Amino acid sequence: MAIQWFPGHMNKARKDLAERVKDIDVVIEMLDARLPASSANPMIARMTRGKPALKILNKQDLADPAITQVWLDYYCAKPGTRAIALDAGERAPVTKLVSACRALAPNRGGLEKPLRVLICGIPNVGKSTLINSLTGRRIAKTGNEPGITKGQQRILLADDFELVDTPGMLWPKIEVEEGGYNLAASGAVGRNALDEEEVVLELLRYLMKHYTSLLQERYNVGDIEGWQDFEVLEQIGRRRGAMLGGGRVNIQKAAEIVLTDFRAGSIGPITLERPDEWKAWEKAARER
Ligand code: GDP
């Protein structure tokens, strides 16, 4: 099953972005640190090509720190690109964000040429939370000045540093099947877009491959070497008392337990994709 999710306002989002990007110095794309590639919007990459780019790997508290570092290195190796990891607990997000942007556009800044930075990201990646923590009360009134779309939110992070928010929804375009599952596991795509059990089985297969000990610790499932994904799901159901009559496991309940735990970070810090895996998935998707 391929998860598809194409709400109709994609065109409007595309137009808004095209309008905004013209006089922007740096484009920040917020990504989910647990699924950096899946949570990227390919349209953003296409429409902002050539602009200095800052990738924010957000929700790093939920992600595997070693793999977050792998992704940071991966992005920083790209020309004109920097990457930082953040989470809502970060004490000084402004400092981190502003200095990364200044380094990307060293010739901008100062009151003559304030640095103008666009921030975008798919829903649920934590953009509002970050903007709230960045601003305190520094949100500039939205205005009708040239170059500023009506209703657009501008945030002054310094006298010469302006953050421009994209209010539109930029949905991920799911071209890679595994990416769809990862988005679904993270909660970034709506409930009715996915078959929960399939999403959980896919998630379990990944965890069995890379995070067996976290699964064992969380659910006390014992040695699961050589087990099938659904056997592990059943075992989790049994361990958690998700039972129907007659000794049968309530699979739906078990799946919900795993999803809820994963989203809350209760299984442990987990990242669902690595750059080399993503490349292989992309290649397979192209050949399909
Ligand atoms: P937006 O749709 O991108 O504006 O996302 P929100 O800011 O509304 O955040 C979506 C959900 O993620 C909310 O439940 C937030 O509390 C949660 N969230 C945001 N940032 C973080 C973070 O750094 N770590 C964790 N664990 N949760 C976060």
Automatic annotation (TrEMBL):
<keyword id="KW-0175">Coiled coil</keyword>
<dbReference type="InterPro" id="IPR027417">
    <property type="entry name" value="P-loop_NTPase"/>
</dbReference>
<dbReference type="InterPro" id="IPR023179">
    <property type="entry name" value="GTP-bd_ortho_bundle_sf"/>
</dbReference>
<dbReference type="GO" id="GO:0006412">
    <property type="term" value="P:translation"/>
</dbReference>
<feature type="binding site">
    <location>
        <position position="168"/>
    </location>
    <ligand>
        <name>GTP</name>
    </ligand>
</feature>
<feature type="domain" description="G">
    <location>
        <begin position="116"/>
        <end position="178"/>
    </location>
</feature>
<dbReference type="Pfam" id="PF01926">
    <property type="entry name" value="MMR_HSR1"/>
</dbReference>
<dbReference type="InterPro" id="IPR019991">
    <property type="entry name" value="GTP-bd_ribosome_bgen"/>
</dbReference>
<comment type="function">
    <text>Required for a late step of 50S ribosomal subunit assembly. Has GTPase activity.</text>
</comment>
<dbReference type="InterPro" id="IPR006073">
    <property type="entry name" value="GTP-bd"/>
</dbReference>
<dbReference type="InterPro" id="IPR016478">
    <property type="entry name" value="GTPase_MTG1"/>
</dbReference>
<dbReference type="GO" id="GO:0005737">
    <property type="term" value="C:cytoplasm"/>
</dbReference>
<protein>
    <recommendedName>
        <fullName>Ribosome biogenesis GTPase A</fullName>
    </recommendedName>
</protein>
<keyword id="KW-0547">Nucleotide-binding</keyword>
<comment type="similarity">
    <text>Belongs to the TRAFAC class YlqF/YawG GTPase family. MTG1 subfamily.</text>
</comment>
<keyword id="KW-0963">Cytoplasm</keyword>
<feature type="binding site">
    <location>
        <begin position="58"/>
        <end position="61"/>
    </location>
    <ligand>
        <name>GTP</name>
    </ligand>
</feature>
<dbReference type="GO" id="GO:0003924">
    <property type="term" value="F:GTPase activity"/>
</dbReference>
<dbReference type="GO" id="GO:0005525">
    <property type="term" value="F:GTP binding"/>
</dbReference>
<feature type="binding site">
    <location>
        <begin position="124"/>
        <end position="129"/>
    </location>
    <ligand>
        <name>GTP</name>
    </ligand>
</feature>
<keyword id="KW-0342">GTP-binding</keyword>
